[in-house]
Amino acid sequence: MYKTVIGLEIHAQLSTKTKAFCSCRADVFELEPNTVICPVCTGQPGALPVLNEKVVEYAVKAALALNCKINLRSTFDRKNYFYPDLPKGYQITQYFTPIAENGFLGFKFDGDEKRVRIRRIHIEEDAGKMIHQDADSISGASGSLVNLNRCGVPLIEIVTEPDISSPKEARLFMELLRDTLRALDICSGDMEKGALRCDANISIVDEERGLSSNRVEVKNINSFKFVEKALEFERERIIKALETGSDVNRETRTWNFAKRETISMRSKEEENDYRYFPEPDLPPLQLSDEYVERIKERLPELPQQRIERLIREYGIPEYDATVLGSNAKLSSFFEEVAKSTDKPKEASNWIMTELLREINRRGIPLEKMPIGPEHFKILFELLEQEKISVKIAKELFPLMIETGKLPDQLVKERGMEQINDEKLIEDIVLRAMESNPKAVKQYREGKKGVMGYFVGAVMKETRGKANPAAVNEIVRRLLES
Ligand code: ADP
Ligand code: MG
Ligand code: ZN
After folding, report:
1. Ligand sitting nearest the alpha carbon of 119
2. Whether residue 250 has its Cβ less than 6 Å from ligand 1
3. What is the distance between the alpha carbons of residues 385 and 8, in angstroms, rounded to a whole number?
4. 138 has a pLDDT exceeding 80
5. What confidence tens digit (pLDDT) does each residue in 324-377 have?
6. Which residues, at least 6 apart from 388, have a Cβ–Cβ distance to it below 8 Å?
7. Which residues, in sequence order, are CB contacts of 190 under 8 Å at separation 6+?
């Protein structure tokens, strides 16, 4: 038996207005290169950093949401390395004493209670970005360019303990973390835009032989899907090595999107020695209990709490609660519908399938959709009173969204009422039997499948409005008589 051991190091970009240690704006994604820089974030001699208070507030919010112990006194340190995207020659981080430690994020996974411990959360600044280009087809020019806009953009790094036991679980953890950071309104959570990045560490334990593989780190994963894919690839690769009695190298790899595999970047021996030392330009950060308490009091309801509450208060399944509870707007809409219809399970079904489909298809956010609880209330009543079939209800749904009209009005306008008239249905079935005696014979000889032919005939003639239960019942009765 092989056991998978995974630990994540996550960088989350904080959505503050300005950078971590200067007053340049921080939302630099897609801005003209090198236009959002100043002497501080580009490390000019004599320029001094000043800590952005919002960065501290956001880091404390994340730490509380992840159940961490806050270090009221934390320190800033320099992580030294040379690379053109880092003109200062060092990154300001919190190495010796981070702002928070020893937390956890709990969630349900396949029915089990899962708890991933958080080792630490620290504040740091981002570096710039290199753009490497191959020979240009027109000018023939090749080379590397640097964009320093991202220098000094505030990040928190969240380091987990190696408590994650499968690639799928790693993905789930990342998604829940994103939803949590979004609920706190401190990070956009967009992995595709680099606002949330993840380095994934994985090793495999061979439980029979009682040995553990080397650990591999996959760097800079930029999508939730790739977290899972890259780790699955590594898991297979490591197990293969163990089975031949060898092991993989202790190294850093990267996910190659095009080849759908990981490739080696460097071995651990080639790692930088960062020569960390205390940042002399920033005093230690000293927080008070009252400050932390004030932030704690104002924390919003977090996705995991909401998911648990939805299960408890509305009796919906864990899966439904997870889909609905991950997003504050969606779940409060669900709650309104569930309350006004008094049918939480139906509400969750319709919202998760039909409503989410329309939102995705039309690219219109929920708050701009011209429908509310009243629409669902009437729709459910029409269904319950058998005035419409489920099939018709599903046709009505997009019409409701297009027009904003209530379903009973649409049913009237378009003559979509369900046909429950047994006599009428019988007539259609009898006519179909007359015109296709062969099918009747087949049915009576035991080919029960031809029943569908007669049901189809009724549906066709009534344009889908016949009550399906009644049609089935009548078709069977007439064929068997
Ligand atoms: P390093 O000093 O090499 O960066 P750390 O102890 O700081 O290593 O751990 C970095 C990350 O690697 C953490 O997220 C941790 O959970 C994870 N990790 C540690 N040991 C293992 C292991 N045996 N298998 C998988 N992940 C691990
Ligand atoms: Mg580390
Ligand atoms: Zn600046």
Report:
1. 1
2. no
3. 53
4. no
5. 998 889 999 999 999 999 999 999 999 999 999 999 998 888 988 899 999 999
6. 382, 396, 407, 411, 416, 417, 418
7. 196
Name the residue with tokens 């994103």: 178
Mean of the pLDDT values across residues 228-232?
Answer: 95
CB of 214 shorter than 6 A to ligand 1: no
Q: Which fold is adopted by the domain 422-480?
A: Arc Repressor Mutant, subunit A (1.10.10)
Per-residue pLDDT at 86: 96
Q: Map out the domains of the chain as residue ranges.
A: 2-293, 301-414, 422-480
The token duo for 19 is 């950078």
| Substitution site in 10, 164, 201 for ligand 1 pocket (most atoms within 8 Å of beta carbon) | 201
Mean pLDDT over 378-395 rounds to 89
Spacing, Cα 203 to ligand 1 middle (Å): 9
DSSP codes joined into one string, 149-206 = TTTT-EEEEEEE-S-B-SHHHHHHHHHHHHHHHHHHTS----TTTTSEEEEEEEEEEE
Whole-prediction pTM value?
0.82
A 10 A CB-CB count for 210 gives 7
Ligand 1 centroid distance, CA of 162 (Å): 6
Ligand nearest to the CA of 93: 2
Closest listed residue to residue 216, CA positions, set 196, 235, 243? 235
Please, is 128 exposed, middle or buried when counting C-beta atoms within 10 Å of its C-beta (0-12, 13-18, 19+)?
A: buried
Q: Is the pLDDT confidence value at 478 over 80?
A: yes
pLDDT in tens, 83-136: 999 999 999 999 999 999 999 999 887 778 899 999 999 999 999 999 888 777
Task: Give me 444's structure tokens.
Answer: 């009576």
- Which segments within 273-348 are labelled E, that is strand? 277-278, 285-286
Q: How far is the CA of 317 from the centre of ligand 3 (A)?
A: 49
For residues 223 and 174, the answer to whether their CB atoms sit within 8 Å is: no
| Confidence class for position 260, pLDDT limits 50, 70, 90 | confident
CB 411 within 8 A of CB 396: yes
> Which CA distances in Å does 458 have to 420, 425, 427, 428, 438?
12, 7, 9, 6, 18
Instruction: Specify which of 153-167, 415-429, 465-479 reaches the highest per-range mean pLDDT.
Output: 153-167
CB of 4 closer than 6 angstroms to any ligand 1 atom? no
Ligand 1 atom nearest to 160, measured from its CA: 14
**Closest atom of ligand 1 to CA, residue 9:** 14
Rounded distance between C-alpha atoms, residue 28 and residue 18, angstroms? 10
10 CA distance to ligand 2 centroid (A)?
11
Q: What is the pLDDT of residue 205?
A: 96
pLDDT of amino acid 364: 87
Ligand 1 lined by 161 (C-beta under 6 Å): yes
